[in-house]
TrEMBL record:
Pfam families: Glyoxalase_6. Residues 51-67 have a biased composition (Basic and acidic residues). It comes from the Bacteria. InterPro entries: Glyas_Bleomycin-R_OHBP_Dase, Glyoxalase_6. This is Glyoxalase-like domain-containing protein. Residues 7-144 form the Glyoxalase-like domain. Residues 49-71 are annotated as: Disordered.
Length: 145
């Protein structure tokens, strides 16, 4: 079987804001408007999408085409429980011990400045390399790993 591409989809209340947050976190870029349009606003206007529906979806992609595309779709309900699947953002993959935790704390501080919430620090020990549990601006959990 041939390997398949993966897209990660987020249900959310504000696709544009959440896409902008994750683009900053991962070094991704907002997907460009379709050919023939200088902006998404121009495309949506040409397609007759009413203004109140123009933030129904957004997407970001890895400029180097290594990571999966992230797609954000507006849903009417808020987040109700802990995620069953979450992203691990590899912020210190080659580091260990206190050096690793210092790098993770530095990244956690940066992301809090972008609107994330820091939930918990898990110390290294045993099989655990150590990580920091975070939430994005809409409450979706992710780990700095």
């Amino acid at each position: 079987m041939t390997a398949r591409e993966v897209q990660v989809t987020f249900d959310c209340g504000d696709p544009a804001a959440l896409a902008a947050f994750w683009a900053e976190v991962l070094g991704y870029r907002l997907d460009p408007p379709p050919p023939g349009f200088a902006t998404w606003e121009a495309a949506l206007e040409a397609w007759g999408v009413p203004p109140e529906r123009r933030n129904d979806r957004s997407a970001v992609s890895d400029p180097d085409s290594r990571g999966p595309r992230l797609f954000f779709q507006k849903v009417p309900e808020g987040k109700g429980a802990k995620n069953r699947v979450h992203l691990d953002v590899r912020a210190a993959p080659d580091l260990a011990g206190e050096e690793r935790m210092t790098a993770l704390e530095r990244e956690a501080t940066r992301l809090v400045g972008l609107g994330a919430t820091r939930l918990e620090r898990v110390e290294p020990g045993g099989l655990q390399a150590g990580h920091v549990v975070m939430q994005d601006p809409e409450g979706n959990e992710f780990c700095l790993d």
